[in-house]
Automatic annotation (TrEMBL):
GO CC, alphabetical: membrane
Keyword Transmembrane: yes
Membrane protein topology class: Multi-pass membrane protein
Organism: Dimorphilus gyrociliatus
Designated name of the protein: DgyrCDS3293
Gene3D superfamilies cross-referenced by the UniProt entry: 1.20.140.150
Keyword annotations of the record: Membrane, Transmembrane, Transmembrane helix
Amino acid sequence: MQKVPLKQVVLLGSTSLVILLHILSLALPYWTKTPYLYSGLFRVCTTVSSVSVCGDVEYKKDAIRAVIAFMFIGLIVLIAVLGLIIAFLTLLSSQSEQRKKIGLAISYGVAGNQKEKC
């Protein structure tokens, strides 16, 4: 069995953690908080006499709709990045030189030419 380098474990673990935190930030109702009210992108909750009552946000301003849209776009991009990382690490860990060349070509194509443009 092949030993997995620590860099790969850290890369996959940190990317997965970022995705998890992103999903939590979308779901939890703690974007704004006052002593009696807290709300998120989709729910509003109030606390009266240590009893919490929550409901859905019916009216959303355009700015909140834009935040929701960009949060979902960011989540899709993060999932795509995780898929690319897994594919890249799989290609690089293979024994075939041809697969390594394909992996490097894909990563170069995705990252683009990084030469200074002066």
